[in-house]
Design goal:
Blueprint lengths: L3 H13 L4 H13 L7 H7 L3 H17 L6 H17 L5 H14 L7 H10 L6 H17 L3 H7 L2 H5 L7
Helix pairs in contact: 1-2, 1-4, 1-5, 2-3, 2-4, 3-4, 5-8, 6-7, 7-8
Length: 173
């Protein structure tokens, strides 16, 4: 099944309360259009599903069937979401305040990963303290760039440097 990661990311966002059910439906419709569903009944049903209550269980079944034990981690999916958020931010569709609300929910939901500490903190502070805007921008660029290239959580973790993140701090006083 092609483009399963796209569905995985959409389901993650939906579970976290950030996504839209239509994104999963659109994924299924596209599989049908390209004749890639392989007679998978759940893909057919997902293409006509409406609302999170119908969409989420069908999408979860599809992901479980094709990924099984190889299911992508929430941290990996969050990282790919951060790449999307960075693009939306640069395009003006997200703001520091809207990102702060997202990171405030993501950080504890992911059990406080080390790589999200500085990004979450700088974003929160940048909502009120202008001196944190550039450090936030620098960290957001750094984290999103790493996730854009990462093919797995392990690859991301092997390239991430806490020392680099720590340089995206503000020395006040």
């Amino acid at each position: 099944m092609e483009q399963l990661t796209e569905l995985d990311i959409a389901v993650f966002q939906l579970r976290m309360g950030f996504g839209h059910a239509d994104r999963c439906v659109d994924w299924a419709v596209e599989r049908l259009r390209l004749d890639q569903e392989g007679d998978d009944l759940e893909v057919v049903l997902l293409a006509s599903a409406r609302g999170i209550g119908e969409v989420l269980p069908l999408a979860e079944v599809i992901i479980e069937r094709y990924r099984g034990a190889q299911r992508l981690s929430d941290q990996f999916l969050a990282g790919k979401y951060i790449v999307e958020l960075r693009a939306a931010y640069l395009a003006g569709r997200e703001s520091v305040a809207s990102l702060d609300a997202i990171f405030t929910r993501l950080y504890p939901a992911l059990a406080y990963p080390d790589w999200l500490v500085m990004l979450s903190r700088n974003c929160e502070y940048a909502t009120d303290v202008p001196d944190f805007e550039q450090p936030f921008e620098d960290e957001f660029h750094y984290i999103a760039s790493l996730w854009a290239q990462a093919e797995s959580l392990a690859v991301f973790e092997s390239t991430y440097s806490r020392a680099t993140s720590d340089r995206h701090d503000v020395m006040l006083g």
